[in-house]
Amino acid sequence: MGCIFRCLPLLLSPFFSSQMYFYAAYVFQEAGIPEDKIPYVVIGTGSCELITSVTCNMIIDYAGRRPLLLGGYIFMAAWAIVFMVALSQQTQISWMPYLSMACIFAYILSFGIGPAGVTGVLPTEVFDQMSRPAAYMICGSLLWFNLFVVGTAFPFIVKSLAHFCYIPFLVVCVCTALYVWFFLPETKGKSFLEISEEFGKRNFKTKTRGGFYKGPEEIKTTSL
């Protein structure tokens, strides 16, 4: 069960990006995009994530889970900073609304090619068969609660922070990138025991015993 709490920050963090879809039209309107163009731009954001998700599935076994996660969150943090700068300057510079739109697309591209694809695969690799149902139950419940909180709080965040409304999401991206860098091992091509041992080395700086975990030798869903 320890892996559940180690991985919760990583599994929950992508849903802080869901405000892009809850309030896409509102975000583009605040960014200065003409109202008659907003529906087409929203369609473009969905198309971007579809393309990047397919791309992520194609390269995830080649690039590895950790680099995609780390790079995705770093780029998301960078685009959030540029987006806030563009919002603050859009009344002074005529082309800033287009930069804001480009930042949103880049943010979604970074999210789709990294966290969006990897976090769907990661739970099956870091949890053994005995703890996997409990892990999915806990993570699933917290994910839906997170969606509710983000969807409810985002309008108030925009109202209170104005041009700096992406600071909370910037903080989440930076913290998650640091978590991946310091605590999450690469899981590509490794067994659960190897991943668990690597977790122990990274989190507690001690070498775990290879034979400590004892689970069922074989679990079958139906009799043969």
UniProtKB/TrEMBL annotation:
Output this protein's name: Major facilitator superfamily (MFS) profile domain-containing protein
Q: Which UniProt keywords apply?
A: Membrane, Transmembrane, Transmembrane helix
The protein's location, in the record's own words, is: Membrane
Q: Which residues cross the membrane?
A: 7-26, 38-60, 67-87, 99-122, 134-158, 164-184
Its domain of life reads Eukaryota
Gene Ontology biological process: D-glucose import; dehydroascorbic acid transport
The record's principal subcellular location, in a coarse class, is: membrane
Q: How does it sit in the membrane?
A: Multi-pass membrane protein
